[in-house]
C-alpha cells in the first residue's frame, strides 16, 4: 500500500490536506481495531482519536525502511487499545461481557464490499493455523489478552502458549505472503 | 535468558506482553539483527489481522481529529543512531519528514515569536550588511513581512528552534531557545544546508543555549540546522543535527 507511505511522508511535512486523506484511508482500520479490542463504541472512539492525533504528531518518526505504513499505524492503534484494556482491567472496572470464546465475535463485525476480499484472505489464512494456534493468536490480538491470560483462558501451559502464538504468526505470515 | 527473551517475540508482536517484557524484547531486538528481522516480518503479518475488523467510525470523529491535529505540534524526527564514531566530519544528513516552514497566516504567530525574540537578541550574523538599521529593526522587518513563513521544531534534548523566513527579503530569523545544557568547551552552531554542502550561519557563545540571529542571502538553502560543536564552532558539522527546519516550500 504505497499510497499510505506517501500520505505519511506528506503528513510529516505538516501537510494537513494529506493528513485528511490519510484519515479517510486509515480511520476505519484504526477505529475498527479499537472497537474489536475494547468492545465499547465510546471508548473505541476516544482511543481512535488519540491514535490518529498521535499519527499526525509522530508521522515525522515513521521510517519506511523499518516496516510498512500499515504496520506502523496499526501497531500504534493496537498498543493504545490494549493499554486501555489493561488499565481498565487493573482498576477492576472492565465488564467481562464475554470471556473465553471472544474471538467468535469478529463474525459480527460489519463488512463493506471493499474490505470483504482482504477480510476473507485473513480469515482463510487463520484457518491454516491449528486450533490452539488460532485461539492463542486471536485471544491475544483481538481480545487484548497477555499470553499469561491466554494460557489461563485456554487451560494451557504458559510456555506452550508462547510458542503457539509465534508458530501461528509464522504460518499466518507465510499464508499472507503466498496470497499476495 | 536470551532463550526466554526470544520466546517472547511472538507474544510481543501481538502486544501480549507486559511493559517490562516489552522493554526487554525491544532491547533484545536492538542487539540481534536476525531477531529484529523476524520481529519485523511478524509485525507485517500481524497488522493484516486488522483487515477483519475494519469498521466505519462515527462521522463526527473526522472533524475532531483534524481539528485536534491542527492544534498539535509535530514531533522532531528521531535522529538516526550513529553507526560508528565518525572518523571524518561529514555532511549533515538530510532528514525525511522535517517540519517545514508554513505560511504564518495569523499575526498572532509572529507576535509569539517576537515575544521570545524580545529578550534574546544576543547576536546576529549577516552575509550582507545593510547600513542604517539596527539588528532589532532588521529582525522585526522579517517577522512582519507579508510573506513571512514560520516553522518550529523541538530539539533533541529539549528546547526549540524557530525559523521565520521572508522569501521576498531573502532573509530569515532563527530563534534558538533553551537547548540542552552543554559545557563551556562546547558551542551550538547554526548551519544552512544547501544542495552542495552546508554553510555556517553562526556560532553561539560557548555554553550558550539560547540566541536569535538574522540570516541574509538564503539563496537555495534547503534546511536550517543546529549542531553541537567544540567551542567556537567547526568548519563543517562534526555531529548529527539536534534540530532542523526545512526551508523547502
From TrEMBL, chain A:
Residues 120-172 form the RNA polymerase sigma factor 70 region 4 type domain. Belongs to the sigma-70 factor family. ECF subfamily. Keywords: DNA-binding, Sigma factor, Transcription, Transcription regulation. Gene3D superfamilies: 1.10.1740.10, Winged helix-like DNA-binding domain superfamily/Winged helix DNA-binding domain. This is RNA polymerase sigma factor. Residues 22-88 form the RNA polymerase sigma-70 region domain. One of its GO terms (biological process) is DNA-templated transcription initiation. It comes from Glycomyces sambucus.
UniProtKB/TrEMBL annotation, chain B:
Residues 68-94 are annotated as: Disordered. InterPro entries: Anti-sigma-K/W_factor (IPR051474), Anti_sigma_zinc_sf (IPR041916), RskA_C (IPR018764), Znf_put (IPR027383). Pfam families: RskA_C (PF10099), zf-HC2 (PF13490). The lineage of its organism: Bacteria, Bacillati, Actinomycetota, Actinomycetes, Glycomycetales. Residues 107-239 form the Anti-sigma K factor RskA C-terminal domain. It is found in: Cell membrane; Membrane. GO terms for molecular function: sigma factor antagonist activity. This is Regulator of SigK. Keywords: Cell membrane, Membrane, Transcription, Transcription regulation, Transmembrane, Transmembrane helix. It is a single-pass membrane protein. It comes from Glycomyces sambucus. The keyword Methyltransferase does not apply. The chain crosses the membrane at residues 103-126.
